[in-house]
Write a structure and sequence with these properties.
The chain has about 90 residues and is mainly α. It has three helices and no strands. Helix 2 packs antiparallel against helix 3.
């Protein structure tokens, strides 16, 4: 009888499993914003154009890098939460 309860999820594991999709969505949004910032950096970073602005390009590049790192971190957190949410199967001989 006690063996049955070892395979059940704890309250923290259930909460982590519910939060994983929200974390993935936040990671997706951060990656989309980083692509937008990268395009801004590419456009304003062109040398010899009327609209070139190195300061704006470097700001946009830093922001794009920061958002990429944030998206990667959120995705890793979601993966970790899902991995912890699933209880490990016991090795059984029968």
């Amino acid at each position: 009888m006690a063996r049955r309860f070892k395979d059940m999820q704890t309250e923290e594991q259930r909460y982590a499993a519910r939060q994983a999709p929200a974390l993935r969505h936040m990671a997706y949004q951060a990656e989309q914003e980083s692509e937008r910032q990268q395009m801004t950096a590419d456009v304003y970073g062109r040398q010899g154009r009327d609209y070139s602005d190195p300061a704006k390009a470097s700001r946009a590049q830093r922001e794009a890098d920061r958002l990429r790192d944030r998206g990667k971190g959120l995705r890793e957190t979601a993966n970790r939460a899902e991995a912890e949410a699933t209880p490990k199967k016991k090795r059984r001989w029968f």
